[in-house]
Every structure is written in structure tokens, then in C-alpha cells.
Amino acid sequence: MTLTLRALLGACAVGALASAATAETITVATVNNGDMIRMQALMADFNAKHPDIEVEWVTLEENVLRQRVTTDIATKGGQFDVMTIGTYEAPIWGKQGWLVSLNDLPAEYDVDDLLPAIRNGLTVEGELIAAPFYGESSMVMYRTDLMEAAGLEMPEAPTWEFIKEAAAAMTDKDAEIYGICLRGKAGWGENMAFLSAMANSYGAKWFDMDWKPQFDSAEWKATLTDYLMLMNEYGPPGGPNNGFNENLALFQQGKCGMWIDATVAASFVTNPAESTVADKVGFALAPDNGLGKRGNWLWAWNLAIPAGSQKVDAAKAFIAWATSKEYLEVVAAEEGWANVPPGTRTSLYENPEYQKVPFAKMTLDSINAADPTKPTVDEVPYVGVQFVAIPEFQGIGTAVGQQFSAALAGTTSADDALAAAQVLTEREMKRAGYID
Q1: CATH number for the 138-297+373-431 domain, one of 3.10.150.10, 3.30.2350.10, 3.40.190.10, 3.40.50.300?
Q2: 8 Å CB contact between 15 and 47
């Protein structure tokens, strides 16, 4: 902790004693990702500006967070005043009237500065119903030293064939170096985020234009076969348990030759205080198969206010601070520009200081390469890149993810996992009335 931050915290502690009697407490539910943890350590700035508001944090693992906030908002439980939700939940919950409009954020918030690709996904009938804390796509992060030692050069826009070749060349299991690390943990936002985006680049899709599931297609079989081959032959042990945070730790420890995952990870893998390979990391676009779609997703973690909150004004004050240009400057002052939450504001990518960050351009290019309105090679009836924006997807996606994670664990075959995915998805879509 810097001296500046200590001094601010000390000053806030004194102020807090004076204002504790009148302070309004809001409860914020968030995910245990690095940027959210960092924000909790930088609350001195908010506390100084809003001594009348106290913030209580509920910080949860991604799958648990989703369960808790979904249950709370659907039952109007009122546990949380601010929820961290994804690009998937925002439009669905907004249409249900479950979220408070943020159209009246102060003028200095500069809503027009939000990146259009991100803002559009958070707007329902002209109402901004969530504010993006950070936006992301996915890309290839790789060890430049291992790539060079393998006699290979990573293209800026690699193919899956190159990824397979490089994964084989960089694997040295005796040295505990694995050519590729990918998500294997079951969950619609864990392994299925990766696999759905990968499937798009293979020409696969979740549903055809009549909402019939497509797991019995040759494209899905090719996707899952290649994924299992990469993980089983060139991936680390414990793959079925590895999500974003587990793979981040493996990469930081120098155990991954390549990692295809969220662009937001770039600041953590290049931070010398956290990563043993910080000076040996390169970046490339997510792979493709020459079919016109890359295997990258589009996502934002956003802050939203459930309609049941009794503390809307205080919640809005917190959201306006946490997703502001000024907050980016707070992070930059304490942690450096490389560590500011990425992918939300045009002005950040126009900032000369941020343009010096080695992964800034690749992050923006990756975000712009994803098109949620046309996510697949063939025409489909849904929007969403690594998810399908229908309420039923959360349950279906996780159930399919469990089948594919079981295939990775070796407790079922690829063919049986795909067949089970087809049956369960068809059953749920019939139950929901999409198909007869």
C-alpha cells in the first residue's frame, strides 16, 4: 500500500467516526476478480467524496455470484443495493423491469464516452440499465520465450491449426510447462463461454433458425474433439476444475505456453509483482478457421441497481464513482495505467499514456471484432457471442457445460456428451415453448 493511500485511509477513518451516525449503508455484491478486489482497496477516494455512504461488500466466486444475485432479484429479496451482473443478465432483467434506469447519472459521468459495443448491450428501450465496470473480449496470451524456443512466430491473427502446432511444440510436461491452458470448469460463463466462442469460429451454433439445438452437427463434434485433444495432450492436470482464476495463476507461475481467455487478464499476467513471466508475454487475436468468425467473446461486468433497493440514490452515487473516468485516474495514480479497468470508455483508448500499454490496442481490436448481433457463420435467431440471450440459457448452458467438463474428466465420451447436450437442450426448449 502506498503512503498516499495510507494517508487517505487514515483521513477517511477520522471522517468515518464523525459521520457513522448518519451514514447510509449499501451492500454491493461482486465477483472475486482482480479488478473488483483492487477497487475495494481503493475505496478511500469514494469515502472522502461520500462520507455519508458506507459500503459493505459481498465478494463471491463467479458461479456463486450468479446464483445469489439471480435468486435475490427474481424473488425481490432485497439483499443487495448494487449487483455486479454480466452482459447476459442486463438486457433480460432490464426487459423484466427488474433494474433501475441509470439515465439520470450526472452530466460529468459522460455516458456518450462509453464504447458503443458495450453501451448497446446495456441499453433497453433507450434506458441505460447497468454501467460497465470493465469490458472485455478474449485473446491469445502467450510466452514469447517459449514460442521462440519452439522456432515459431505467433501471427497477429492465428488459426486454430497454428494453435495446435504451437501447443504441441511448447509442451514440456517434465518441466511442468503446458502448451495451452483453457477453461474446463463447468458453467455457462466458465467453460461454455470459451467453447461457445470457439464453436462460432468452427461454424457451429447453439440453435438453427427454428430454435432446434445443433449439438448433433459435425461442427460441434469438431469443436469438442479439438478442445479435448488440446486439453488432454497439452493442457495442465486438473483441467475440469480450472476456470479463469485458476488458469490465471498457472500462467503467472510460468506453467502455460498459451492461454486463450479474457483480455482483462493482460494487466495481471504482465504485472511483475504478480507474474513470474511478466516480461515474456505476447498477445494475439483469438484463433479462427478461415470461416469469417474468430473464437473471441464480448463481455462486460457491470454495476446495476435492483428495483427492490431502498437506497437508490446512494447506489447511484457509488456506481457513478466506480465506473467513472475519475476512477480510472485513481487506479492509474496508485497502480499504473496498465492496471485500470479496460474496455469501457473511448477516452481511455485515446489517452496517450494508455496507448503505451502493450495490450491496449489488441484489447480494443478484440472487442471490436466481436459482433453479438451476428455471432455465428450461419444466420441464427439469437444475439450474444458466447451466450444466447434468452432467460433459459443460464440453466441450459450450465447443464451442457457439465457434460463437456465430464468429457474432459474422462467420465464420458465426446460423442455421449454431445448426445446428452442435444437431448437436454431439446427438452428444455420444448418445455419453454420454443419448439414443439
Answers
A1: 3.40.190.10
A2: yes
3-136+299-355 topology per CATH: D-Maltodextrin-Binding Protein; domain 2 (3.40.190)
The CA–CA distances, whole Å, from 281 to 145, 193, 266, 353 equal: 8, 23, 9, 20
CA distances from 151 to 120, 145, 148, 165, 370 (A): 43, 10, 5, 11, 31
Is residue 41 pLDDT above 50, yes or no? yes
Q: Which amino acid belongs to residue 96?
A: Q
Where residue 308 falls among pLDDT bands split at 50, 70, 90?
confident
**Beta carbons within 8 Å of 46's beta carbon, 6+ residues apart:** 53, 55, 318, 321, 322
* Helix H or strand E encompassing 67: helix 62-74
Q: Which pLDDT band, with edges at 50, 70 and 90, does 1 fall under?
A: very low
User: Dihedral of CA 74/75/78/79: which sign?
Assistant: negative
